[in-house]
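Figure 2 data, in text form.
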Amino acid sequence: MGNKVGSVLRMEIFGTSHAPEIGMTLENFPEGFAPNLELLRQFMARRAPGQGAHTTARKEADEPIFEIGLKNGVTNGNTIRAVIRNTNAHSQDYVNLQDMPRPSHADYPARMKYGEDFDLRGGGPFSGRMTAPMCIAGGLCLQYLQKMGIHIGAQILSIGCAKNSKFDPLDPEIPSKYAEPTQEMLQEIAAAKADGDSIGGVIECAVTGLPVGLGEPMFGGLENRLAQILFGIPAVKGLEFGSGFSCAVMHGSEHNDPYYVNSAGVVKTKTNHAGGILGGLSTAMPLIFRLAIKPTPSIAKPQESICFSGGSGILEIKGRHDPCIVPRAVPVAEAAAAIAILDAVLEAKL
């Protein structure tokens, strides 16, 4: 299965949503680094479920347990392996889904590909739960990159019609004060939940401190590396860099980013429509990307579906689900970006 990513820094995710445990392995992480495990736990807590009325009621500690790769709290050059115990799965909530695929979930194509015995409880390997071990790997990478002067931070740009435009991409410190939903955003989530529905949104992420020229042309470009792992986040349906799709209605004179030399003698651009990447290479301007996050497909409203045993019917989904996945996906975006960027950094050093 496609649960591996990376060129030099190689990450593999294993387990399923309702398995006894989920986890990750991380190959070729630099030796001799002492991660702050308390900061890692705080980072994991930003993604963890059960944080209030706007998230799923499933409660998991998401405590990372390092089995190999750390000795006396320091990376020893071996493959890092860490697991998270699943302690609060309600598999009985998914009994009726064995015969009826949920709309906009992977149930139908997965059943056709892997057969009727494939474990899809809670979404199986397609669940957003699988981003928890990604955050272990990403949390380590974030700390390592910060030591190099590379910072990654994300914010909620919008949820439904509620927008936020206060983020400063020149200072994406973690955690960003704009990583939490505003009151208007919470109202959008509450309204959707009260109607038995869900809602999506947009996450914006910035990477600062990159050198000039990180990445490769064409298929080795930073956009390609980031896209591969970002689309591994189950809820992501769209990705844009810099001005993104809005550049389609701009003239070249508007979209081009003029160069200048600042007072410190450093080459900069007056605008950043390119989002910090040209030809797949970093420009040393902030690398900016945005993710479109779809509405959670598990909703309380009755929905039409087919039966694998024949015929069709009305599906009613039980269980505990986020009315909006956007708030918990913010640290996942940071984690995914950190893994891709550190992989490119390590490759450049070879």
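Caption note: The chain has seven helices and 18 strands.
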